[in-house]
UniProtKB/TrEMBL annotation:
<feature type="transmembrane region" description="Helical">
    <location>
        <begin position="397"/>
        <end position="420"/>
    </location>
</feature>
<keyword id="KW-0915">Sodium</keyword>
<feature type="transmembrane region" description="Helical">
    <location>
        <begin position="194"/>
        <end position="214"/>
    </location>
</feature>
<dbReference type="InterPro" id="IPR038377">
    <property type="entry name" value="Na/Glc_symporter_sf"/>
</dbReference>
<keyword id="KW-0029">Amino-acid transport</keyword>
<keyword id="KW-1003">Cell membrane</keyword>
<feature type="transmembrane region" description="Helical">
    <location>
        <begin position="166"/>
        <end position="187"/>
    </location>
</feature>
<comment type="function">
    <text>Catalyzes the sodium-dependent uptake of extracellular L-proline.</text>
</comment>
<dbReference type="InterPro" id="IPR001734">
    <property type="entry name" value="Na/solute_symporter"/>
</dbReference>
<keyword id="KW-0813">Transport</keyword>
<keyword id="KW-0739">Sodium transport</keyword>
<feature type="transmembrane region" description="Helical">
    <location>
        <begin position="6"/>
        <end position="24"/>
    </location>
</feature>
<keyword id="KW-0769">Symport</keyword>
<feature type="transmembrane region" description="Helical">
    <location>
        <begin position="459"/>
        <end position="481"/>
    </location>
</feature>
<keyword id="KW-1133">Transmembrane helix</keyword>
<protein>
    <recommendedName>
        <fullName>Sodium/proline symporter</fullName>
    </recommendedName>
</protein>
<dbReference type="InterPro" id="IPR018212">
    <property type="entry name" value="Na/solute_symporter_CS"/>
</dbReference>
Amino acid sequence: MDIATIVALALYFILMIGIGLYAWKRSTEDSEGYLLGGRNLPPAVAALSAGASDMSGWLLLGLPGALYLSGLVEAWIGIGLFVGAVVNWVVVAPRLREQTVRYGNALTIPQFLANRFPDQAIALRVISAIIIVVFFAVYSAAGLVGGGLLFESTFFEGEVLGVSPYTAGVLLTALVVLAYTMVGGFLAVSLTDFVQGCIMVVALVIMPLVVLFGDGAAQSAAVLREIDPGFLSLASDMSVIAFLSLIAWGLGYFGQPHIIVRFMAIREGGVETARNIGLGWMLVALIGAVGVGVLGRAHVELNGLELENSETIFILLANTLFHPFVTGFLLAALLAAIMSTISSQLLVSSSSLTEDFYRLFLKKDASEREAVTVGRISTALVAVAAIVIASNPESGVLALVANAWAGFGAAFGPLIILSLTWKRMTGAGAVAGLVTGAGVVMAWIALEWNSSFFGGEGVYEIIPGFIAAWLAIWLVSLATAKDGEASPGIRAA
């Protein structure tokens, strides 16, 4: 690797750790500061933090890789996500910001649910915390896989000190993320997300434009049609089930703790501004990712290049089209996408372990300083679990993200929406929805019905999980609520 590329990446790592140290001085004295940044995030920081922690390495690896292989039809994933994000910002964000404060100043999603449904407080906190830790270990592993692929494709060949390039990438990514997350907490994660979000969107604008102007639009379109006449069609050979499985990604937004926790931390009165910034950023980023996958396929074909793993098309373009220093910047954008999500997921996992296990069962009177320390230890433990899961180089980024996304979307999505909007929802209904959503998703994956459903096409597990959870909440709430009476949490407000 060229020295200029190494310098650019080194500067990026130094910047991330520097932000962590800055945040350490500003917001790690108590739990609210460490876990939510004192609920005082500026709208722009909250918006880009939500976006960057949402998109992850999936935006620069998984989505372009899917488009590279299958064509524009895979863009329906991005369309579904954008629609889901719009509804999330409009319906969930303002209500969650207000109600988490109103119900006991809840610092975590499990804590909010417990305060909202006090008759099932323990069950909700424990079950939701378990789901968060388990699925986030898988989700964080997807990011570490991305870091491993980056090192394996770019930095060096062969083992160094007995460690493969892939393993070195996984470990270095995890260590840098741990450094600024453990030190600076939520504020460090949010500020680094803001910087990383800016880097990501610039990279996703620059790269497809360079490819397009270099190869030419007409020539690129012609070679793609030679590969497959329907490559540039949004509806090429797509069944109803395939369409629903792609667009259903949008259902996952309502239940992603690492995204919706940003809504809880926005400065009072800043939700609308954050929404506009966040959705604008997301639209540009998704269009850029689509361009990387589609135009990247044309570039590879036109120039006789070889690409073993479609999920590394961004890395290939960065290494072959740009000056080494710019390549370093583009690879930093990839690391930014990976690290922003991992840090958010680790922090949410540690907050659940601290607030919903340690303070609930082990030491209820733990001091604020002790709680912050336990949070840092919990962050490291979840990271170790993610490293173990990511140790397999054959793991697919998109597959891991899809499983975790579905798990959270089905378990928490209907639960969050209905808890914020339906007054007749009960604690028993909340528990039923949480267990049903997670259980259906895990069973669907175990039976491999997401690959083949009774000999036919696979159905994305979020669809049955989301529907089953919604029905469970509705039916059990109607069966357990007193006539004409709202749930205890609403009544007490």
